[in-house]
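Before the break, one more example. Copy the sequence into your notebook; we will annotate it together after we see the structure.
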Amino acid sequence: MKARGGRQTWLALAVACAAAGAASLAGCHPTGTAVVDPLYSAVLAGVVVMAASRSAGGPLLWLAVVAAALSRGLLLVPAAAALLLAFGSTWRRRPSPALNALTAALAIEVVLRWPSVGFHGATAVVATAALAPLFVSAVGSLSGRARRAALFFSGGVLIVAVILALPLFIEGLSSRHAVENGVAKARAALHGVSAGDSQAARQQLVLAAADFGSARGKLDTWWTAGTRIVPVASQQRQALVEGVNAAEGVASTTAGAADLIDYGSLRYKDGGIDLAAIEALSAPLASVNSALAHASTDLARARSGWDLAPISDRTEALSREITQARSTTLTAEMAVKAAPSMLGADGTRHYFVAFIDPAESRGLGGLMVWYGDLAVTNGRVTLESYGDTPPFGPQLASMGARLTGPPDYLARYGQFKPQDSFIDVTYAPDLPTVADVIAQLYSQLGHPPIDGVMVLDPRSLASLVSVTGPVSAPGLGVLTGSNTQGVLDKGQYAVYQTEADQQARKEALNQALAQASTRLTSGSMPGARAFFQELGPDVRDGDLMFWSLYPQEQPLLERAGLAGQFPNRAGGDLLSVVTQNAANNKIDAYLHRTISDQVSYEPATGQVESTVEVTLHNSAPKSGLSDQVIGSYPGSGLTPGSDELWFSIYSPLALKGATVGNKAIELQATPELGVETYSGYVTVPPGGQETIVVHLAGRVDRGAYHLALYQQPTVVADEVSVRVSPARGWTVEGAPVWRPPTERVPSHSFSFKHN
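Here is what the structure looks like once it is written out:
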């Protein structure tokens, strides 16, 4: 019997050694330290196996049941085997240490490879609950002396862990003030560097680097190194050390480059900009971006699910600041590399400037009523030609101008013959498409090929006037940054009301635009920082757009938000409501649009049903305004003040029906820009409103509901709301209603959880 018991013990020990070896390959990370973690896994497996060899059958069965319950995929095979052996051992009259050891070995290998479930650490909690009865049973089977030794050893291990972790706790408290000061200074400085305010940023960065260096000296020292072998505490040390190291590196590198990153030195002077000053920014921006990229990588590597909230919150906040700064400086670096070519360093560039009037709406915002041809050579700008665009129409028609694409533009708008009416080329709600059309037609008029298109509307022109200075317009007074938009949207038509006055109105605007153009081509402007601060909101809201016909420059424009592209739904849903003036008047300055989208969504399948309700309110009166505003084309039969609109909804979903004022209507379906458009005509009486309801259904990507939104630039900002109701058994995480602010927001995502 004694020999048999000895053989059983040796067999259990052999199983324990094999289990330890396999456990070292399980990939568990109790400390996040490469050498220590496999060792801990091996020790745990060996101890569990040896404890099971002395344990009763009940705790072993409990371990096997829990191991099987959380298993998935191939893990179910060893889990099932452990469960069968555990059941078998409970029926044996005499326990078999070797069999128990084999059962526990299978179970612990499964436990160490469990997939993540619930919150981080949930599997560790469940594993502790599964193993605790086994250890209690094993200790209970020991002799009194052996039991005391086991308890003494366990307590000693706990005391050693506390002693090793205590220095980190002490130094963490003592360095907290330095870290918080450093984060505050670095945040302010990074914002300054992003904005090009290098003088204010440099001193803050130097101080921040000193604060982080002080914190690092306390945290990354020999007497906190012991924490690296203490589970959970080790991750806190790693997060703290990597965090301050990353912050110190960013602060030091950026401080050294800050003096060289001075956007204020980029000044538009005497009709041009110094290309050498732009090129001088390339190296320091590359240095800062490299430091930010390394810091971002280091912080990501240091993050762990075991990080405590005070540490993880600060690390996450710092990571966000670095990501934001990196995005801004990366855009700046791309701009600096592309700018010389775009500004004519490799030969003269010709840019077509289109001024659009949203009082007569089109898909891109408004009718194109004025143009300019900017030529740029080695940073110097000249205005080669400018004026009204309406005369181009008869010229193009007389010469039989042709458009060769884009195909969906021709399919949808060819019926209106845009090639014979240059002012209408802005039908498409996509600047790259419109730029293609402009380039084709403008060259057929005998002008040099253009290299890009810039689009301005009254709002962005007002911002430009704020930068260049006031201009005079006969009959309209002095146009400033504060009154230009109002004058262009409505005021000009109140002053010049009759048909006979329209030529005088155009001359007044041409004179004002000529003054502004002269200042642009021969004057000076504030530094780049002030320029972008003034015009930044116009870029964000789609009032200032620019597209280059050079593919290598287009990623920069997309990143900078200038491209004016129709959004890509990327497998999700998309919604856009576009209204285009069909009455040949300027009444859309009085149009108010309210858009409500009620969405039913099945996260498991991606099935979508959408009810889009669009209310169009026309605040124009029946009389008292110019015929240019409340009149319409001859023979229209429209009551003065009526707004006739070509209404379109863009969506990837299929049309199920539509109504206007509770009466069913048919909408024409035409593909455009990767989705379907559903279009029809609607007339809104003066002082009245019409409500269009469109029912859509289809399928998008499963999981989160992602909605891309194109908000047409309008005189009066839209009121938009999107409510998503998930299928039964699901709830929305966060707010179920999205109301985009007045500025254009391109997309939003709704996440769900299964009840």
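The domain at 573-754 is CATH 2.60.40 (Immunoglobulin-like). The first helix runs from residue 2 to 23. Try to locate both features in your own notes.
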